[in-house]
Amino acid sequence: MGLTVSSKGTYVFDEATRDGKGVLRYSRLVDGKREAPRPLSKVINTGKWNGHPFIAPDESYIM
What we know:
The chain is 0% helix and 33% strand.
């Protein structure tokens, strides 16, 4: 699993699925509590494999 963190505390990470494809997920820090991970939109989660994300410190982009 690849994990990256913004300066706001948002985690972005990859997660393999049973079909062998990767899904990028995120989890924000809201009022000091970690929210449950959610998949990023289908605009980002496209193709056969999505992995090793990087989120900009200011959250202005994800690669």
